[in-house]
Specification:
By secondary structure, the protein is of the alpha+beta class. The protein is built from 12 helices and 10 strands. Helix 1 (67-79) runs antiparallel to helix 3 (123-133), helix 2 runs antiparallel to helix 3 (123-133) and helix 8 (230-237) packs across helix 9.
Length: 336
């Protein structure tokens, strides 16, 4: 029997991002706040038990070494099951823009395949699999608003915030992640390029943003104390991106770049204000050629309920809608 599902795989933005130093393992020590947004890819999955594993993906972009296939192999091996699985991917999240589309796709596969296979895989196991696939993947296993430490895999959920309207600008400018990190001039190991006072200020400023966000429960209201360490370095390399950011800041003062770029975003007080800003930016000559997309912030509860709806026909029925929030990861009705 073939079991099928269609998933929405959500993007993320970094509401705040600080880079402290380069670690001995080659990754950078980060402090960031991840936030899921409604911009999404579509993934259709057809799952069928088999004697040997066969994976196929229909992907118009022909993404090399697609994380969907890597995630599928990893979780099938962890469950010790074989299956024929076909994926159909429709990309809407721009690639290489700091929006986490590939990581989100991988997390979607990690959450869905155990349900379709009728196996129980704990969140801790999924977390480990996700961390091996990419630094952002563990975050997408729960979504919402979260602090991420280390290389981004140490995740701590934050209080739910308002699902405010947002704009995302996909500039079309390619920002190479390696050179972006190099431009920060963070040395390897425990030695810091930052003085102790600068380091303390950076950490204190990040903590202030997190504390403010928790108090006001609004990314818009907290944005005055936010920062992204990559902005100054990336904007020097790409003056047109800085010009777009300037235009966006005129519409919403808390405009930021997400990740190491090149997507920009801003949060608004109302959908009407967001939509008016979108029209202005679409007609602006500086933003010509960029894609301006409307979205909303998605909190943790809404993220979990989205997954419950997407997988509903394959899940253990819940008597009360509130109970579904407590069952995480989603529990397969086929599990023995």
């Amino acid at each position: 029997m073939t079991r099928s599902v269609r998933l929405q795989s959500l993007a993320k933005v970094n509401l705040d991002l600080r880079v402290l130093h380069k670690r001995a393992d080659g990754f950078h020590e980060l402090r960031t706040v991840f936030q899921t947004i409604s911009l999404a890819d579509s993934i259709e999955i057809d799952y069928q038990p088999a004697r040997q594993t066969e994976l196929q993906i229909d992907d118009a972009l022909a993404i090399p070494d697609n994380l969907i296939l890597r995630a599928a192999r990893a979780v099938l091996e962890a469950m010790k099951v074989h299956a024929r699985v076909r994926f159909r991917l429709k990309k809407r999240i721009p690639m290489g823009a700091g929006l986490g589309g590939g990581s989100s796709n991988a997390a979607a596969v990690l959450l869905a395949l155990p349900v379709l296979a009728g196996r129980k895989v704990s969140l801790e196991e999924l977390w480990q699999l996700g961390a091996e696939l990419g630094s952002d993947v563990p975050f997408f296993l729960q979504g919402g608003t979260a602090v991420a430490l280390g290389r981004g895999t140490e995740i701590y959920n934050l209080p739910e915030i308002r699902q405010e309207p947002a704009l995302v600008i996909a500039s079309g400018i390619h920002v190479a992640t390696g050179p972006a990190y190099q431009a920060l001039e963070r040395p390897t190991g425990d030695r810091q390029s930052l003085t102790s006072s600068d380091l303390s200020r950076k950490i204190n400023d990040f903590q202030l943003f997190v504390r403010t966000l928790g108090e006001v429960r609004s990314a818009k209201a907290a944005s005055a104390s936010s920062a992204n360490d990559f902005e100054s370095a990336v904007f020097k390399q790409h003056p047109r991106l800085k010009a777009m950011w300037g235009r966006l800041r005129k519409q919403s003062a808390g405009a930021r770049m997400t990740g190491s770029g090149s997507a920009l975003f801003a949060v608004f007080d109302s959908a009407a204000g967001r939509d008016a800003a979108r029209q202005i930016l679409e007609e602006d000559r500086v933003s010509r050629g960029a894609t301006v997309m409307a979205a909303n912030l998605v909190n943790g509860r809404a993220y979990r309920r989205l997954w419950q709806r997407q997988l509903a026909q394959h899940l253990v029925p819940s008597r009360l809608a509130a109970e579904s929030d407590l069952i995480w990861p989603p529990r397969s009705r086929y599990a023995r």
